[in-house]
Design brief:
Blueprint (H helix, E strand, L loop, with lengths): L5 H22 L4 H34 L5 H25 L6 H27 L4 H13 L17
């Protein structure tokens, strides 16, 4: 994906992740191995997305606005903790090929839907304001430079998601 704006790039990543999760849900009762692969791609991608936000985007927003330990980024961080809780619960079931994760999946999707909407409608446009092409390239380079172990959380990965 080419990054022309934060809103465009991260919105497309939200859509990509939603697709992976939907595929996982469709497979989990029919093909546990295939479902596990989709979930692994989902959890790794979502964890990377969260690390990008918490380590690159949120500090940029906070530096610009002076809002640290309060405001939208603090709410997003709290929601990231809730997302991680549901991800962990689903992951525990995926590990043992138990498809009975519907309640945790619903809770996760409820949080993600509202969370993504706030990011796409409020936070990302605020970050985009005043960014030129060079700044966007710099942000993308910072994202690309993050080592995989910062977000590889599935199946023996050493990193962690917030």
């Amino acid at each position: 994906m080419t990054m022309t704006s934060i809103k465009q790039y991260f919105g497309e990543d939200h859509d990509r992740l939603d697709g992976l999760f939907t595929e996982f849900q469709g497979l989990k009762r029919q093909d546990a191995a295939a479902a596990k692969l989709k979930f692994k791609a989902f959890i790794t991608g979502l964890s990377r997305h969260i690390v990008w936000e918490e380590e690159i985007l949120f500090p940029l927003f906070e530096e610009r606005t002076g809002m640290t330990n309060s405001g939208p980024t603090e709410i997003m961080r709290q929601e990231h903790l809730m997302i991680k809780k549901y991800l962990d619960a689903i992951h525990d079931k995926v590990r043992v090929a138990d498809p009975e994760s519907d309640l945790d999946e619903k809770a996760l999707l409820d949080v993600l839907k509202a969370h993504n909407m706030k990011e796409e409608q409020i936070l990302y446009p605020a970050i985009d304001a005043g960014l030129d092409a060079d700044a966007i390239r710099g942000i993308k380079a910072s994202m690309d430079a993050l080592p995989e172990e910062r977000y590889a959380v599935c199946c023996g990965g050493a990193g962690h998601a917030h």
